[in-house]
Amino acid sequence: MIRPYTAEDRPALEDFLMHQHIFARLNEQSVEMFRDENVADFEADGTVSLIIREDGRVVAIADLLKRHPVDGSLWLGLFVVDETLHGTGLAQTLYEQVEEEYMRPYQMEFRLGVLPHNVRARRFWERNGYVYEKDSITNKGTRVHVLKKRLIR
């Protein structure tokens, strides 16, 4: 079940993030740093933060910026599926639901940033229709490849 994050979700979000060792390492962070940064992002105004549960357990999270102040597109700032579920097809299913329910109603153009050394993620996003647009630096100083997807009406 996908639904917006609320304050009651914080303990489950923190627990979920503490188990994402691969993603934290890709971000060159300890799991504690990764947890703290992403909890802060989920509790900040201006984004739509989503908790995705199956059988009561958090299996994925997503964080969306509906309209970027510079380019006007919707940005998928974070999409993390529990690393124990990688390779099961769950990420594909969940992304399709997030796009259909939380992205398409608001925009026709989506962007996201992928860490240059995260080849697996880059392949996933390209399979979902994203194409390389440019290299960029995030507001946190991280170099990323910006990928873009444009829907055709």
Strand arrangement within the widest β-sheet reads 1-2-3-4-5-7-6
Summarize the biggest pleated sheet. 7 strands, mixed
Poorly predicted segments: none
Rounded mean pLDDT score: 93
The count of DSSP E runs of length 2 or more, i.e. the number of strands, is: 7
Number of helices: 5
What structural category do the secondary elements indicate? alpha+beta
Beta-strand portion reads 25-35%
The helix-strand sequence is EHHHEEEHEHEE
- End-to-end CA span: 28 Å
General form: globular
What percent of the residues sit in helical stretches (DSSP H or I)?
25-40%
Q: What's the gyration radius in Å?
A: 15 Å
Summary, kept brief:
The protein is of the alpha+beta class and 153 residues long. Helix content is 33%, strand content 31%. Helix 1 runs antiparallel to helix 3 (31-43).
Top keywords for this entry?
153 residues; 7 strands; seven-stranded mixed beta sheet; alpha+beta
Task: Summarize the structure in words.
- The chain is of the alpha+beta class and 153 residues long.
- 33% of the residues lie in helices and 31% in strands.
- It contains five helices and seven strands.
- The chain has a seven-stranded mixed sheet with strand order 1-2-3-4-5-7-6, with helices on both faces.
- The protein is globular.
- The mean pLDDT is 93.
